[in-house]
Amino acid sequence: MINRVQLANLPTPIEPMPNLTRLLGGPELFIKRDDLTGLGIGGNKTRKIEYLAGDALAQDADTLVTAGAVQSNHCRQVAAAAAKLGLRCELVLTGEKPEHAQGNLLLDFLSDAKVHFVSSRETRESTLEAVVAALSQQGRKPYLIPYGGSNAIGVMGYANAMHELQQQGFNPDWIVFATSSGGTQAGLVLGAHETNFTGKILGIRVDLIPQDFSSVLTNLVNGGAVLCHSRWRVDPASFLYSSDYNHAGYGVLQPSDIEGVRLFARYEGVTLDPVYTGRAAGGLIDLIRKGFFKPNEKVLFWHTGGAPALFAEPYQTALLA
């Protein structure tokens, strides 16, 4: 049985983007507004957390534990979910503790999450294990949510999102989105199989790791298929993703990221974040200019949220320079 708890405002709307379509000379652009899922200012992670938190409650957990960067959208939504469900939350964040809490970190604190700061990704995993062990020794019941909510259970969130898209009666030729830990892309691919989706699913990678991304996606999709009692297994060669726009590294702004954020705001009134959706938008814009898509195709940009990061340094300074 796959457990789920209702946390998101669904279905999220699909909107045309006529101004950007005209500016870029086609293809026909649309946006799926998962920034409007609602929980803790919204975002794609809420879809995953519905299933992960459902599993936590089924196991009588009293504390959600997870990890990410200081400006993690995922951690912000886990903290909000814990608050809504009456659970405690502990976060392990990579980066120095800032003098002033801004953006996502401010919202973590407002949700009453306990935050542990670590200096690097390498020490983050050991710290996570130590936090879980300490909670267990205290008699608590921690539930560990993986980075980005990306495991077989979390994959169910975006497998279900493809059913939602089908129910909305929208059939784009392409779905383009930001991909990092892989759970969103894996869920879309699994859901595409379940709904007989005939379009193509293209992730724009925002991170340099993991290097063997196809293997990560394969394991996630196949793990999700097992939970769905499906014998189908994905062909690793079938994944589409671009690693052409992540060379600056995770969270390091580059010109195409900035242009993506600015153009979506100036021409469609849509707020993107600098780390994920800004990078994906920059990649989408570059691909359009290079003629990657046919002029008559419909391209759906799946907005995965993240706007609170805009209100943290150094992103404010870079975007307004």
Question: What is the CA-CA span between the terminal residues?
Answer: 51 Å
Number of helices: 11
Any idea what the shape is? globular
Radius of gyration from the alpha-carbon trace, in angstroms: 19 Å
Could you say how many structural domains there are in total? Answer: 2
Protein model, in words:
The chain has helices at 18-24, 45-58, 73-85, 103-110, 121-137, 152-167, 183-195, 213-227, 255-268, 277-289, 315-320, and strands spanning 14-16, 28-33, 63-69, 88-94, 114-118, 142-144, 174-179, 200-205, 240-242, 298-303. It is globular. The strands form two sheets. The chain has a six-stranded mixed beta sheet with strand order 1-2-10-7-8-9. It has a four-stranded parallel beta sheet with strand order 5-4-3-6, with helices on both faces. The chain has eleven helices and ten strands. It folds into two domains: 14-44 and 150-320, Rossmann fold; 45-148, Rossmann fold, CATH 3.40.50.1100.
Q: Secondary structure elements and their pairing?
A:
Elements: E1 14-16, H1 18-24, E2 28-33, H2 45-58, E3 63-69, H3 73-85, E4 88-94, H4 103-110, E5 114-118, H5 121-137, E6 142-144, H6 152-167, E7 174-179, H7 183-195, E8 200-205, H8 213-227, E9 240-242, H9 255-268, H10 277-289, E10 298-303, H11 315-320
Parallel strand pairs: 2-10, 3-4, 3-6, 4-5, 7-8, 7-10, 8-9
Antiparallel strand pairs: 1-2
Helix pairs in contact: 2-3, 2-6, 3-4, 6-7, 6-8, 7-8, 9-10
